[in-house]
Amino acid sequence: MSAPFARTARREDAAEIARIYNEGIEDRVATFETELRGEKDVLRWFDEERTMVVVEQDGRVSAFASAFNYRPRRCYDGVREFSVYVSRDARGNGLGGVALNALFDAARARGDWKLLSRVFPENQASLKLLKSLGFREVGTYIRHAKLDGQWRDVVIVEKLLNEGEAA
């Protein structure tokens, strides 16, 4: 098994990104989305203002992370929402951390100062990973949205990307 490495996502990765994202949708542990995505859907992401990285291992994309606009107001230009997904067959091997560390670098390079997301409380693996990478749990949105007809809560997390900088 080769060492995993992260790189900027390319359009030719769209099918693999869709495959991994669809596993997350099907597993119902990472997103409120229920409609599976195809390669064409992911290709549109490249036309948006997204920062995307993938993790390759053994010649195959096994994880990805993406950061996208938080809000349209200019005051939030450096605040981005993020998500990270790891292929089912590669989970538990540190690839989520590899993807997120690469996303941190890419986000800093574009001038972002904060990443945030919402995580299902049941997704303890993600919450543990995020805590280990310096994310802070801000609080919990109760009954944030329904998934398969059931109300779900989400834990809000944030990370300042330049912790050592003066305000």
Summarize the entry for a quick read:
The chain is of the alpha+beta class.
Keywords:
167 residues; alpha+beta; Aminopeptidase; 35% strand
What does this structure look like?
- The chain is an alpha+beta fold.
- The chain has one domain (5-160): Aminopeptidase (3-Layer(aba) Sandwich).
- The chain has helices at residues 14-27, 39-45, 95-109, 124-132, and strands at 5-8, 51-57, 60-69, 79-86, 114-119, 136-147, 150-160.
- The protein has a 7-stranded mixed beta sheet.
- Strand 4 (79-86), helix 3 and strand 5 form a beta-alpha-beta unit.
Profile the largest sheet. 7 strands, mixed
Would you identify the CATH H-level superfamily? Gcn5-related N-acetyltransferase (GNAT)
Overall 3D shape: globular
Counted up, domains total 1
- Quickly give the structural class: alpha+beta
β-strand amount:
25-35%
Radius of gyration: 15 Å
Strand order of the largest sheet: 1-2-3-4-5-7-6
Number of strands: 7
H and E string:
EHHEEEHEHEE
Q: Mean pLDDT, rounded to whole units?
A: 95
DSSP summary: helix tally: 4
Low-confidence residue ranges? none
